[in-house]
């Protein structure tokens, strides 16, 4: 397998970055993860649009055009034998003597690779997974897909240490999102997810779920979600590019609803899989 680094395709062992890269020293960069189904980049335009937003938010110019990104990803995917994969890309501000101020005239470091997609285990899909609630200790620009993920890593580990798959984050009494996912609840048959804003990442999977709900007459709302709504929810789901739509059937060691994945999850997951199938065949 090859990785892409600054214009070259290299074996991973030969790809290296300076210890003075601002990504390494400051976490000064942004990233994307793009799922690949049947060798094709799923919702590529959405991921590139979000990348553009993230880059603009940290005042970096996009180093590649959309066409150039696609060429890089396609080659990585092909070299990896197509099938279902995930493409990771990151852009950092580049290499410069350590100083908080932006360096002048420095080229960004551009890195990308593809790996086989690790789907959640079949039992997790069929039975749902456990989650715990945790205080959202992150910064105030969670809408930027920043590589600095220390808080997210601490929160995810906190969940793992309690035997759960995800932490559902609470800020000022409201649900924001998961450590690496967006959150939906079903409340009296209606799908509810927090609105986009500075405290959540605008998830590509989240948007697709909303799109599919609207197109198929499933009532869905984007509105602030109090923590208390988690404890009365009929269903809770997490969404992400690599975990797709996963039921959360236990929260803080108590069952959610019936304790089994619910009927609305079955419906939206079927719609999602049909959409994905059509994409693969299209
Ligand atoms: N929120 C956070 C903090 C994430 O890291 C992710 C992705 O891993 C998501 C939400 C889901 O976004 P997407 O559906 O675009 O993968």
TrEMBL record:
It catalyses: 4-amino-4-deoxychorismate = 4-aminobenzoate + pyruvate + H(+). One of its GO terms (molecular function) is 4-amino-4-deoxychorismate lyase activity. This is Aminodeoxychorismate lyase. Its EC number is 4.1.3.38. Its cofactor is pyridoxal 5'-phosphate. InterPro entries: Aminotrans_IV, Aminotrans_IV_CS, Aminotransferase-like, BCAT-like_C, BCAT-like_N, Class-IV_PLP-Dep_Aminotrnsfr. PROSITE patterns: AA_TRANSFER_CLASS_4.
